[in-house]
Amino acid sequence: MKIIIAGAGAIGRHLAKLFTKEHHDITLIDEDEDKLLNIGANFDLLTLCASPTSLATLNNAEIKKADLFISVMPDEAHNIMSCILANRLGAKKTVARVDNPEYAHSQNEETFQSVGINSIVYPEQLAGLEIIHNIKRSWVRQWIEVQDGELLLICVKVREDARCLDVPLRDLCAPDMPLHVVAIKRHGETLIPHGNDVLRCLDAVYFMTTPKYVPYLREIAGKTDYPDVKNVFFLGGGKTTERALVHLPDYMRAKVFEADVHRIEQLDSTLTNPHIMFIHGDGRDIDLLIEEGIHNAQAFVAATGNSETNVLACLAAKRLGVRKTVAVVENSDYIAMAESLDIGSIINKKRLAAGHIYRMILKADVTTVKNLTVAAADVAEFVVKEGSKVTRRPVKDLKLPPEVTLGGMVRGKEGVLINGNTLLQTGDRVVAFCLEGSLKRLEKYFN
């Protein structure tokens, strides 16, 4: 597949690396030659130092042959314009990154499609929603609802009091049991487990289950003593925080610490929720946090533009007694460090955006792709087509790639866990867990 990416920032570079690993024909365009030098030397792709909004540049990149054009420059106007031009010049599909929440509304999809933009991605919106999903339940590291909530993928860090430790998975996840362990993050490595494997203390475990059995999972994982989140502190009043606050549940109260008084005025005029309080000050100031009652907070979210600040702030909040912390970490080099420090949930906007964009290159009927930041893996939702390979024999006989596991499915309207004896049927909506870079290999089973 020929893919042209406009913008060699964090998202553009991440996408270029991801697609290059799968041997796609990649052209990366940016006006800043320094951004292109390193990636051009280390990855098999073509770089073009020029303006992506120039007709000549797009023609030089052979836009008429492009299967996908992705514009992720800092300026949303440039992204929209370049996608319109790319479409007119022959690109089959286009994706534009935006900063305006209005553009990301589903009711505006038809407007953008009418001018040649197939998909809009707003990373701050994706990150804000991810934050809310994570703080709603203080006992989980990650909570993903798939297939309209009929199935749940829940990441939990198990400790010495967990009942699920040292039990062979063939017993813990037997066919009649209401959960399935799809992956384990252990000592920095993500493992696809098998029946003889056991869970160990401090493993980050990805369980798939159904809503009915969440209390059971919470009990065996040793998480019944975690408090419900009613009060949450936010460090930083940027766009990610703003999008999270828009979706703040009615039962939560939030305090937002922001050093820029003008930004506070903007937020105060935009967000009319009486349960949100804006505080002009440095949220890293321990005395200020104590004065504002951090001992009453069940969650702390660090969402400044500095990854190091966010990690350190979460560590400080942990020491002050906050059970649930969330850090926005944009520097990929800090993700492993943040996980090793046991700070809680980690949000990475570029990986969230990449997952949104990635499904556009898959030929199978993939409705959603979500990236699991800490696990370096993806969760994909496939619709089983008539006559596809997965319908011909039970799952245990499909010879799936070893880095892939099928966690659950929705048949009709009911969520069901998948085991080796499951025979998939046309119309089943299947949730697959794939280590990063292996999703393309799974695609052929659903075509």
From TrEMBL:
- PANTHER family for this protein: POTASSIUM CHANNEL PROTEIN 2-RELATED-RELATED (PTHR43833), TRK SYSTEM POTASSIUM UPTAKE PROTEIN TRKA (PTHR43833:SF5)
| Pfam families, per database record | TrkA_C (PF02080), TrkA_N (PF02254)
What are the entry keywords? Ion transport, NAD, Potassium, Potassium transport, Transport
Q: Which GO terms describe its cellular component?
A: plasma membrane
What start-end ranges are recorded for coiled-coil regions in this protein? none
Please report the name of this protein according to its UniProt entry: Trk system potassium uptake protein TrkA
InterPro entries the record matches: K_uptake_TrkA, NAD(P)-bd_dom_sf, RCK_C, RCK_C_sf, RCK_N, Trk_Ktr_HKT_K-transport
A Gene Ontology molecular function term for this protein is: potassium ion transmembrane transporter activity
Q: For the RCK N-terminal domain, which residue ranges apply?
A: 1-121
- UniProt cross-references to NCBIfam families, sorted A to Z: PRK09496.2-6, PRK09496.3-2
Q: Where is the RCK C-terminal domain?
A: 141-223, 367-447
